[in-house]
Sequence to fold (239 residues):
Amino acid sequence: MSEGLLSVEGLQTAYGQSQVLFGIDLTIREGEVVGLLGRNGMGKTTLVRSIVGLVRAQAGRIRFGGVEVLGQTADCIARQGMAVVPEGRQVFPNLSVDEHLTAFAARRGGERGGILWNAQKVYELFPRLAERKRNLGNQLSGGEQQMLAIGRALVTNPRLLILDEATEGLAPLIREEIWRCLKQLRESGQTLLVIDKYVNRLVDIADHHLVLERGQVAWRGSSAELADDRSIWQRYLGV
Fold:
């Protein structure tokens, strides 16, 4: 397997005696958008948690930017330029919007597409957050919290941005706002790994996709291949 920005080989992860991932291979190259698909409980979030160091894998390799990161702590991996927008948003209830974007800011010198993300850039991306910059995390709507979670990740100026169910549970108008954001990030050259159930939207922005089934890669291919074969949607995604 040729090495990309992120290279995962033979990854196996378990929780106690219960194995969840069985030999996952994944490559993401600089500037690519990759969709990670599968029904609930198939291992998508465990794969993300393994990649970012929140769960210790039992076997395999994870290389990021040419460096082996398997076994490193989550904060070490984050400092190398990996950021995740977690499922459930996880914003701090007692920090304001502005404090979130200030506390997590990091200038890495390798900004994507000529963009150096800071609070002002995030407010331009999400004007709704600018209107609420003094509001605390627990004073925001679910959609605003999701925008803040994305903005918080962006101000770290990540080489790889991972989004775990970023449109889950949002009103249609807010969901469209998130898809607009992802399209804009793609056009800027940001490398993305996106978990989402809206396959019809993912095929519009992703270069290629992996489908997980019971902790294994059941299918991989391009957006064009996925769009053309609806049997994959029915067999593995229940769409």
About this structure: DSSP finds ten helices and ten strands in the chain.
